[in-house]
Amino acid sequence: MKAFRIGLGMMMAAMLLLGICLAPAGAEELRVVTTQDKSGEGKKYRELVEYLDKKGIDMNFEAARDYVSAAELFSKGGVDAMFSGSGIAGIMIMKGLAEPLVRPVAKDGTSTYWAVVIAKKGSPKFTGSADYFKGKKVILTSMASSGEIYLHHLPGAAKAAAEIKKAATHAAALDALNTGVADIAIVKNRVWDAEKGKYPGLEQVGQDKSENPDGTLIVSKKMKQETRNKIAAVLTGLKNDPAPEAAVVRNSLGIQGYIPTKNEDFKHTLNLLKEAGVTKDFKFKF
């Protein structure tokens, strides 16, 4: 019996030692916040999580009730990063909570987007003024540079509209417009370009004058520079990584890889936000 206990103890010690040896040296923890409306983020990035793990970066997802809660987590150091559309990223930057690190480059080489105005075929062209929306029902997505933020940056446009409807996605906004739920939709140009073949009765009547970074990974200003550099190096190295697992990540996300992204890349987005009345104290609600 005594020999059995000694043998068991030695086996457990050996397993512990093996676990230590197999653990990534100097592994960095990357806590990524996601909101309830993006609860599928973990599944979307599953292959990337596994890839980063092999590179010594332990990425996991923390749930937040909404963007206000996410901002609080950033401010308290409860999370490290967020994959974000330009609107939310810009707000976090304005609040002094986060900075952009990298953004994906799609298979077609694009990494930015802009708002487009969609209406029934034969509608007047968008004039760029609030009067265009007078008495119209407008459908868009919340807190999007190519949606709610774009509408609010146009002086008086939100008040001129007869009704502002919220869609869960840009694609859903197009569906609603097509079925007559609204008169005008403001959506992301990439979505319109991909989906417009489904809607022969709709057409683009206008667009924003500049572009916004797409799907940026923003990181907490509390993150150590060494950690930031390591994450950036791994993600920007994904494009030219010949390893099979790197190809799996690129294919699963539909990207070529990631490119460095800085505050300067958000110049247009930040201007939209300021013109929409967003300040450091903004509560994610117009």
What is the percent of helical residues? 25-40%
**Structure classification:** alpha/beta
* Domain module tally: 2
CATH superfamily of the largest domain: Periplasmic binding protein-like II
**Which regions have little confidence, pLDDT < 50, spanning 5+ residues?**
1-23
Q: Can you tell me the overall shape?
A: globular
What is the mean predicted local confidence, pLDDT? 89
Order of helices and strands: HEHHEHEHEEEEHHEHEHEEEHHEH
Major sheet characteristics: 5 strands, mixed
Strand content: 15-25%
The radius of gyration is 23 Å
What count of helical segments does DSSP give? 12
CATH class categorisation of the largest domain: Alpha Beta
CATH-defined topology of the largest domain: D-Maltodextrin-Binding Protein, domain 2
Number of strands: 13
How would you sum up this structure, described in words?
With 286 residues, the chain is of the alpha/beta class. The protein folds into 2 domains: 28-108 and 214-275, Periplasmic binding protein-like II (D-Maltodextrin-Binding Protein, domain 2, 3-Layer(aba) Sandwich), CATH 3.40.190.10; 115-209, Periplasmic binding protein-like II (D-Maltodextrin-Binding Protein, domain 2, 3-Layer(aba) Sandwich), CATH 3.40.190.10. It is built from 12 helices and 13 strands. It has a 5-stranded mixed β-sheet with strand order 8-7-9-6-10. A 4-stranded antiparallel β-sheet has the order 3-12-4-13, sandwiched between helices. Strands 1-2 form a two-stranded parallel ribbon. The longest helix is centred in the first third of the chain and has 21 residues, at 2-22. It starts with a helix and ends in an 11-residue tail after the last helix. Mean pLDDT is 89; it is low at 1-23.
